[in-house]
Amino acid sequence: MHELSIALNIVDAAAEELHRRGGTRVGAIHLRLGLLSGVVPAALRSAFEMARAEEPITALAELVIEEIPVAVYCPVCSVEQLIVFPELCCPTCRTPTPDVIRGRELEVVALEIET
Length: 115
Hints:
It is built from 2 helices and 6 strands, in the order αβαβββββ. By secondary structure, it is of the alpha+beta class. The strands form 2 sheets. Strands 2-1-6 form a 3-stranded mixed sheet. A 3-stranded antiparallel sheet has the order 4-3-5, with no helix packed on it. Helix 1 crosses helix 2 (41-52). The longest helix has 20 residues, at 2-21.
């Protein structure tokens, strides 16, 4: 389950940032997670429950996940389109396009730190 190693890295990064900023506890970790990231949100949440317990300053932290849909650029329509995965084609004109604009994200975007 690679979600556990990801969760541990998220907890470590949050703890490191907390120490840099002089906080006492992490209240929440906000994450953007794309459909094409290869990470299952439910598995990550479960792994995060285990990982956060390893670090006292994150023991009560909440993981807030913003799931990002897949968007591609259609060269025929000349616009960005949200697609229904796994079809990598424009939903309007049905042109296949491998030009993925969004949907691969796996990034911590914010921390709620208590002082």
